[in-house]
Automatic annotation (TrEMBL):
It comes from Caballeronia telluris. Residues 238-300 are annotated as: Disordered. Residues 248-261, 270-282 have a biased composition (Basic and acidic residues). Residues 238-247 have a biased composition (Low complexity). Residues 16-203 form the Glyoxalase-like domain. This is Glyoxalase.
Length: 300
């Protein structure tokens, strides 16, 4: 059952800014995106405050996909703070150990609304605003002090978006190469779907993501359409992950059963030969009787 509370039209003020793919290394993330979409990333750079760096992929309609990773051997900061998007957490490190993952999303707050003022009015709803930079680009981003994902009433896990406000009128996607890749749908899966849906409606972002309840791990799933009409999906709901694991377990069970049958057939086909050899009379060399000699010994 879908839990989805759309925001009234007049509240639909927020826009999708970007999706976040986390990777162990930027190179690994770049290979992942190129393998998925058939086109490489571009632009990006280092975030000095967070000791991270990124690469970007343009999406249709003024958004982009971000690949982000920790900068290896980053210089120590005077007052280091936790990195954004939970990148420092052991759970996130374990999650991306098997490969890059779609972990988060960000929505854009356009002027005349000021993100810092909005946050000051509703600090229980909106995480602290942090000034960010990458080269000549500057912006404000909501990042909890501990670097975790934003949350509402304890529910977040990457499904509640970060809020971003750029300091210039030109969005970064305008400077990226066109790809023709369009985001078709964005779905969030969370055990506390009602709380997430209510918060998205309050933000004015409910029209951007469908929320589905899950009994498993939270996550987001994005579906893209490529210029040739083919579909690419990033992210995996807990249910689909469990279904895939079940299918793989069933496949292994069938393969093992087939191998066991083959082994039994081989053993069965070999058994008669063994039995014939076991029941054959033992004859010493040279003791076989010549038929003619045997006849000559018949009684007259």
């Amino acid at each position: 059952m879908t839990v989805h509370t759309p925001a009234p039209a007049f509240q639909r003020t927020l826009k999708l800014d970007h999706l976040v793919v986390a990777a162990r290394t930027l190179e690994e993330g770049e290979r992942f995106i190129a393998g998925k979409f058939g086109v490489g990333t571009a632009g990006g750079g280092a975030h000095p405050l967070m000791r991270t760096h990124n690469r970007l992929l343009n999406l249709w309609g003024g958004a982009y996909l971000e690949v982000i990773a920790i900068v290896p051997d980053a210089p120590a900061a005077e007052a280091p703070r936790a990195r954004l998007f939970a990148l420092d957490s052991p759970a996130m490190q374990a999650r991306i150990e098997s490969g890059p993952q779609l972990v988060h999303w960000a929505v854009r707050v356009d002027r005349p609304r000021l993100l810092a003022r909005w946050q000051a009015q509703y600090p229980e709803r909106i995480a602290p605003v942090v000034p960010m930079s990458r080269g000549a680009s500057t912006w404000s981003l909501t990042v909890p002090d501990d670097g975790a994902f934003p949350a509402w009433q304890g529910a977040g896990d990457g499904v509640v978006p970060s809020l971003i406000q750029w300091d210039t009128t030109q969005h970064p996607s305008a400077a990226l190469p066109e790809t023709g890749i369009a985001l078709r749908s964005l779905t969030g899966h969370h055990p506390r779907a009602e709380a997430i849906a209510e918060h998205l409606a309050w933000l004015g972002a409910a029209h951007l993501m469908r929320i589905e309840p899950t009994s498993g791990a939270p996550g987001i799933v994005a579906e893209f359409e490529l210029p040739d009409g083919s579909i690419v999906t990033l992210g995996e709901s807990a249910e689909s992950a469990e279904a895939a694991q079940s299918r793989e377990a069933a496949r292994r069970a069938v393969a093992e059963a087939d191998e066991a049958k083959k082994s039994r057939r081989r053993a069965k086909s070999k058994k008669p030969d063994d039995e014939r050899e076991a029941h054959a009379p033992d004859e010493a060399p040279g003791t076989a009787q010549d038929p003619a000699h045997a006849l000559s010994r018949q009684p007259e």
